[in-house]
Every structure is written in C-alpha cells, then in structure tokens.
C-alpha cells in the first residue's frame, strides 16, 4: 500500500476506509461527463489514469513493489464498485493489463522499471502480437520469426487481429525463435517498439464498419535482445501465465459493468413496453440468472488467484459463460428494441444512440477473440473433465 | 478456507460417505422397484445426523445451521437419488416455524425429537402451491374437521403427518392431520419412484389448526420457497452425477478406434454440462444465502435458482442418456432413474418458465 502510514496499519476495514476515502475524493475531483469527441475522450481518459497513478490509486490488485495498491479481495471488489458507480473512465488500453502481469512475474528489474509506470499512467499503449493468418486457434503454429544477430533480434512475419495497433507504442509478441515442437517449443516473448523501422500497420475494417484492429507486417525489424521477457524459447509458458491472470482478474470489473448494462436493459424494456411481453420476460430472467452466475464465479476465481491457487474450473467456465452471455444480452436487447432494431447505429433516431445494434454486432466477437468458444469447450473437456483430446498429437 | 466452507466440506464428506455405503444405485433401484420405495433406515440415520433439522432454528429443536448448509446436504442426497422425504419434511418444518402457533410448536417438537415425517397437502398448479381444491374445514364443538381429497401429495406414503391447506369459509388455513380411517392415503404411481406420491381422502377427519387465514399466505410461501431451494439443490446433485456418468462413459467407450469423448460433438456436450452444473450450483448457493438472510431480493433469488437448476438437471440427464447411446435407453442402466428424478422435480412445485416469470416481476423496476 503506497501511502499507508504507520497509524493506519490497523484493521483491514481501517485500511479500506483510508484508500476508499482518498479514492472518493479523487473521483469527486476528476470523474465527470466524458467529452463527446472521440479524440478528446481518449485524452481525458489518459489524463485521468495518469493522475490516478500519481495519487497512488491505480492497480488495486498489483503488488505494492510493482506500483500497485496490494489490496485484498474484498478491497479490490469495493474499489471496482466505487469506480463503476461514478462511471470512471476505463483504462484506455485494456491490453496493457495482459502484458503487465507477465512483466511483474517474469520481467527483469530493468523491464519493470522501464514499462510498468507509463503503462499504468496510459502514457504508453500496448498491443498484443499473438494471432497470425495461419495461427488462430492453433496459436503454437505461429511462424513470425526472430533471428539472433549480435545483441539484436531481426523479426520477419505478420500478425493479425491486432487491437490498438495504430495507437500502440509497444507490442508484446509471441515470436518463433526455434523449431516448433510440443508445448509451444521455440516461441519467445518479445517487446517490440511499434515505431521500429520495418513495421507496417494496416487497419482492418471490422463488422461494425469501424477499425478496431489491424494487420501488422514485420520486415527485418530490429529488436534489442534486452526486450526478451523470460527465457529465449520460453515464451509460450509466460503467455499462458498472462492469460491466466487476464481470466481471473478481468472478470471483476466486468462483473459490475455487466450488472449495469443489464439494469440499463431493464429500463429499456420498461420504456419500450417489451417488459410486458411474457416471452421477453423469460429472456430477461435468463439474462438475470447469467449475470448472477458471472458475479458468483468471478468472485470464486479471483478468490482462488489471491490465495495463490489456480482459478480452476470457475475461470474456464466463466470465460465461456461471459462470452455467450454478452451475445445473448445483445440478442435480447434487439428483441426489446422491437421494430427499432432495423435502425443502423448512425441513424439519429435510433434508441440510445444506436448502442444496442452496435453492441449486437460487436458482441459476435465475444465467442471468437482470445480463444473461440469451441476452444474454450475443448479446454473444459480436456483440462477440467479429463476427456481425451481430439487433436492430432504432435 | 473459511469456517463455513470447512463445515460444508465436512458435512459433504460425512454424508457422501454414508450414502456411498448405504445408498448405492443397486439399493435405490431395488427399493424403487419394490413395494415400499422409501428408505426408512437411511432416513433414521439422516435424522440421527441432524440433516432434516439443518434449517430449523435451535429454539425450534433444529440445528440452526441455515439453508446454506442444507443445500450442500441436499445436493449429496440428489447425487445418490436418496429415496427419503427430505424436501417435504424441510418444507413442512419451515411452514411450522413460520406459523409460530402452539400447535406448530408441538408438531415441531415431535418432528425434531422423533424424526417424524411430515409433508404438505396442497393444491398444485404450474405456478406453485395453492390451497387444496375442494378441501373444506369446518369448526364444530369438538374442534376442526376436514372433508375432501388431495389427489397428489409428494412423499405422502412416507408421511406421518399431513399439513393440509384447506378452505375455512373465511379464507384458507393450514391444518395438521394424521393417517387414520378418516384420512386415507392411497399410493399414486409416480414418474419418479424415489419421491413417492400419494392421494389423501379426508372424511370428517379431525384436524388441528396450524396457521389461520391471516398467516396462511406467508406460511405457504415460506414452505414453498424452502421446497424450491432444496429441490433445486437436489437437482444440482442429480445433474452433477449424471455429468460424471456421461464423462466416464465418454472417456472409456471406444468407437471408430478411439474414445467417443475425443469427438467434439460429445466432448462439447460434456463441457456444456459442466457449465450448466457450475452455474446452477452458484445460483442455488446464492438463493440459500438469501433464505438465511431474508430481504427484498429473496424471492427473485429463489425463483431464478430453482428455474435454472431444475431445467439444468433435465438437460444434463438427457445429455447423459444421449452420450450413453442405446445403453442409456435400457432399464438396467441408471440413466432413466436420474431422468425420472429430474423431470418429475421440474413439475413438483412450479415449472421453470413460471418461476422465471416470478423472477421477472421481482427484478424489473416498477413502472
């Protein structure tokens, strides 16, 4: 706890009061209505998180030595509730929190010192270089490679579905440094500056017509060897560690967001009159059950992580439930919209600024990105239930 | 692990051990296919362990442990298809605690100390319990008498006392009657023999008033909530065991030269089972917590949990049967016993879609 002083090292609730009072003061001073303009909104969110970090109120779950608040589970939940209640801006680069645990756990002292602070402050943005055109669900077959040349790697290849690539300062990437083999052999975890010579970013239009991700091409890109995280060829295990963290902790803030969106859906159903339709009411009750399951499972998963245990089935299950819940929620929302569901997101008369139709389109990625629902089911079947794999063994 | 989690783990282990010894599938099948389908001896052991009194406050002769622990116990009972009237007895005890009358206290004493079995004789609709249709209570100089027939009562063949929801002329009330020549129980063939059914015919049958018209609605709702949550916990146990059976079969059954569980059509079905079981268990735990600390959300939590768990059990057992192929369709294989327990439970108190409708009423903000 960065600012915990001698007098408030007493009971956990005293410590909670301490930071939560400071957070409340901070939010009073800094939260507010987001600017309408997209660029201004981004700058606003960045400034918010820079000051949050400055005040020692960022990263509630990170250890204090990594610049976090080192809060326990109850406090982390309270923290996220407090942030969500005032609609504090989300960190503008969610991917940063996928690389951060890997750096905290496997990075050198220099790497932690160099990267963690600007990451938290949103001074620097990160993108993830994992997927490739021929390596999606079968990620270990990736072929973007790095050749060692003195104290540099020379990287060639292509990454795909790279979210935030056009805004990112850095990419954390899985790169082939040795021959492929079982268990993700020959893959290294590299931190690549996006401004490097030889990198080309080509935005890719997505389902909504927006550009949320890109193709990234590497043509003899030189990366210093000190940007290797962990052992050479040992990147696959590290990447999985980071995914584990993502699964366990990312649920927490989602829990409150989902609750809020469901409440908003209830209001929409009330105003549109759909709440009187018995079929819609069945759907809303199912959605309600799911959002409660998510809340319960994410607490269990986070609890396990904080006790140093593997989140186990709760995390795998929650990931799948969450993905399908997000889709179902938006399907029901369009049913609630009724005749207005024909309106595109740019039509000015579309209810609530077209957010539900936009959300519906975007939610189709929930069961694809970061592991398809099919791969999630494979994982549950093989790792939790102990069923044999259907894939060809390498 | 918290103290609560530790207690739950111990209870599950003790009860699980007892049931593995005393209530294997052969025993259940033999009882179900025999003349008396419930297991008196097992019931006595459960009474000795204090399981039927887990939810009853200590001042009413119970264990005072609450629903959070009771649902864990019921899940174990469901897992082994235990043919004991636990759901009915807990619902009856909950009704008696809620009634709070001297007669209720007297009955609670007997149910608690003697392990006496009791069940509610109520009207059954798709939307829950009502007063028993056509059962009339009349107060004479010698006290109350009841006339009429209750056609389907859960666990009637095991019950030593019936709590009958009858019309008094100034509103429905709850009465206690005991089987005798003016209160005749006739067994009814049940889809699920592990939860036997019976009809009760009442002819000027002497009855004692347990809860009057003023208290009746609250008493009936309390009992119904208790029944729903325990039935939901039972369903989680049924689903969990059916999932284990399906996974074990998928792991070992070979076709096309490989285990059928390596085919995604089968393995993904099994993965869906786990998702459904874990989700239902989480909702049931939340509902039990909501019953232990009553609040404005209690009814919604109970309705959602029961809807989800009851439906999950049916879906998972049907999936288990499918994974077993032709074997699952035989009388010898236990799949049909799980299917019977799951499907009958869905219709025992209130149907899942009706429960969702209730939940929608509770959770949608007022217009």
Automatic annotation (TrEMBL), chain A:
It comes from the Bacteria. The keyword Hydrolase does not apply. Residues 38-121 form the Acyl-CoA dehydrogenase/oxidase N-terminal domain. GO terms for cellular component: plasma membrane. Keywords: FAD, Flavoprotein, Oxidoreductase. Residues 127-221 form the Acyl-CoA oxidase/dehydrogenase middle domain. Its cofactor is FAD. GO terms for molecular function: flavin adenine dinucleotide binding; oxidoreductase activity, acting on the CH-CH group of donors. Residues 234-385 form the Acyl-CoA dehydrogenase/oxidase C-terminal domain. This is Acyl-CoA dehydrogenase domain-containingprotein. It comes from Streptomyces iranensis.
TrEMBL record, chain B:
GO terms for molecular function: acyl-CoA dehydrogenase activity; flavin adenine dinucleotide binding. Its cofactor is FAD. PANTHER family: ACYL-COA DEHYDROGENASE, ACYL-COA DEHYDROGENASE FADE28. InterPro entries: Acyl-CoA_Oxase/DH_mid-dom_sf, AcylCo_DH-like_C, AcylCo_DH/oxidase_C, AcylCoA_DH/ox_N, AcylCoA_DH/ox_N_sf, AcylCoA_DH/oxidase_NM_dom_sf. SUPFAM superfamilies: Acyl-CoA dehydrogenase C-terminal domain-like, Acyl-CoA dehydrogenase NM domain-like. Belongs to the acyl-CoA dehydrogenase family. The keyword Iron does not apply. It comes from Streptomyces iranensis. Keywords: FAD, Flavoprotein, Oxidoreductase. Residues 6-104 form the Acyl-CoA dehydrogenase/oxidase N-terminal domain. The lineage of its organism: Bacteria, Bacillati, Actinomycetota, Actinomycetes, Kitasatosporales. Residues 230-346 form the Acyl-CoA dehydrogenase/oxidase C-terminal domain. This is Acyl-CoA dehydrogenase domain-containingprotein.
């Amino acid at each position: 706890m960065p600012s915990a002083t001698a007098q408030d090292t007493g009971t956990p609730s005293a410590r909670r009061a301490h930071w939560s009072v400071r957070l409340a003061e901070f939010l009073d001073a800094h939260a507010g209505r987001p600017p309408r303009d997209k660029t201004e909104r981004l700058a606003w969110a960045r400034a918010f998180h820079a000051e949050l970090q400055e005040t020692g109120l960022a990263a509630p779950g990170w250890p204090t030595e990594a610049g976090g608040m080192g809060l326990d589970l109850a406090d982390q939940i309270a923290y996220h509730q407090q942030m969500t209640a005032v609609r504090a801006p989300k960190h503008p680069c969610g991917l940063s929190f996928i690389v951060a645990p890997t750096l905290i756990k496997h990075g050198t002292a220099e790497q932690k010192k160099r990267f963690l602070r600007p990451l938290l402050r949103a001074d620097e943005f990160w993108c993830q270089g994992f997927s490739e055109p021929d390596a999606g669900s079968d990620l270990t077959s990736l072929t973007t490679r790095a050749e060692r040349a003195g104290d540099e790697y020379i990287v060639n290849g292509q990454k795909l579905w790279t979210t935030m690539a056009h805004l990112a300062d850095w990419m954390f990437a899985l790169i082939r440094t040795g021959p492929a083999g079982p268990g993700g052999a020959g893959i290294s975890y590299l931190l690549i500056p996006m401004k490097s010579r030889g990198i080309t970013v080509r935005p890719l239009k997505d389902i909504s017509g927006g550009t949320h991700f890109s193709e990234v091409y590497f043509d003899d890109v030189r990366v210093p060897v000190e940007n290797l995280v962990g052992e050479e060829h040992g990147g696959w295990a590290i990447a999985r560690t980071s995914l584990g963290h993502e699964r366990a902790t990312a649920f927490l803030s989602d829990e409150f967001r989902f609750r809020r969106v469901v409440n908003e859906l209830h209001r929409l159903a009330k105003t549109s009159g759909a709440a009187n339709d018995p079929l819609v009411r069945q759907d809303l009750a199912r959605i309600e059950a799911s959002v409660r399951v998510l809340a319960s499972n994410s607490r269990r998963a986070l609890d396990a992580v904080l006790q140093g245990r593997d989140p186990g089935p709760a995390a795998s299950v929650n990931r799948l439930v969450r993905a399908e819940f997000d889709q179902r929620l938006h399907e029901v929302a369009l049913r609630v919209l009724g005749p207005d569901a024909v309106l595109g997101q740019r039509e000015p008369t579309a209810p609530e600024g077209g957010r539900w139709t936009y959300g519906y389109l975007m939610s189709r990625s929930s069961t694809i990105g970061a592991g398809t629902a099919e791969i999630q089911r494979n994982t549950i079947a093989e790792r939790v239930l102990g069923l044999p794999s259907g894939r060809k063994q390498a | 692990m918290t103290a609560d989690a530790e207690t739950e783990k111990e209870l599950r282990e003790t009860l699980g051990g007892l049931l593995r010894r005393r209530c294997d599938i052969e025993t259940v099948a033999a009882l179900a296919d025999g003349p008396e389908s419930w297991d008196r001896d097992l019931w006595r052991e459960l009474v000795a362990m204090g399981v039927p009194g887990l939810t009853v406050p200590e001042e009413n002769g119970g264990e005072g442990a609450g629903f959070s622990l009771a649902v864990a116990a019921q899940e174990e009972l469901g897992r082994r298809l235990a043919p004991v009237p636990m759901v009915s007895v807990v619902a009856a005890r909950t009704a008696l605690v809620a009634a709070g009358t001297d007669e209720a206290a007297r009955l609670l004493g007997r149910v608690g100390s003697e392990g006496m079995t009791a069940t509610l004789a109520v009207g059954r609709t798709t939307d829950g319990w009502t007063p028993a249709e056509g059962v009339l209570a009349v107060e004479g100089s010698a006290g109350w008498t009841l006339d009429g027939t209750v056609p389907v009562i859960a666990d009637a063949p095991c019950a030593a006392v019936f709590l009958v929801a009858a019309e008094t002329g100034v509103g429905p009330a709850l009465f206690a009657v005991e089987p005798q020549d003016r209160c005749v129980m006739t067994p009814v063939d049940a889809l699920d023999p592990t939860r036997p059914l019976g009809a009760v015919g009442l002819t000027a049958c002497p009855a004692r008033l347990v809860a009057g018209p003023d208290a009746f609605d609250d008493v009936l709702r309390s009992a119904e909530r208790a029944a729903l949550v325990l039935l939901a916990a039972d369903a989680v146990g049924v689903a969990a065991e059916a999932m284990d059976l399906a996974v074990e079969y998928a792991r070992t059954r070979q076709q096309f030269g490989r285990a059928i569980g390596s085919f995604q059509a089968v393995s993904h079905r099994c993965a869906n089972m786990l998702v459904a079981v874990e989700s239902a268990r989480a909702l049931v735990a939340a509902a039990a917590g909501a019953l232990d600390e009553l609040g404005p959300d209690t009814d919604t939590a109970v309705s959602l949990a029961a809807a989800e768990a009851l439906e999950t059990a049916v879906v998972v057992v049907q999936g288990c049967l499918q994974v077993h192929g032709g074997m699952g369709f035989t009388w010898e294989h236990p799949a049909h016993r799980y299917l019977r327990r799951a499907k009958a439970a869905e219709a025992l108190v209130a149907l899942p879609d009706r429960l969702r409708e209730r939940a929608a009423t509770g959770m949608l903000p007022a217009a």
